[in-house]
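Weekly modeling sync, notes
Attendees: S.R. (lead), two postdocs, one rotation student

Agenda item 3: backlog of single-chain predictions. S.R. asked that every request posted to the team notebook include the full sequence so nobody has to chase files. The rotation student volunteered to paste the first one in as an example of the format we agreed on. Action items at the bottom.

Example entry:
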Amino acid sequence: MKLRYVREAAVEAGLSVDAVHDAAEELFEHGADGTPPDWVRFCLTGVPNRAGAQFWYQLLCTAGLVSGAGAILLPSIVSPAHGFAAGLWFMGCAAISSKAMRWMDKHSAWDRLTRE
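Predicted structure, as returned to the notebook:
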């Protein structure tokens, strides 16, 4: 169902548009049953708990730094373009993992991370 139709129905029922907007954001952020949203579950696929997520975050940061350093220090062995590209990839993965961990911490949802 489109949010526009929900807003129109809410106004007809006497609810404020802001209340409908806030409810829609809450539903998008938390899901219907209080489980983490799909993007968080995707980012933490295979991660059992916070300690595991922290381990992978640190490993991704290290891999990004090593890739970038290899491109600078060992240009005859590691192609600079490939080294920097790999470094950016690993750092991007670390950034999204960090964002997912912050979401889980903010919502105290580590016990609700379900595996299917």
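Discussion: group reviewed the output briefly. Residues 80-106 form the longest helix (27 residues).
Action items: rotation student to repeat for the remaining queue; S.R. to check formatting next week.
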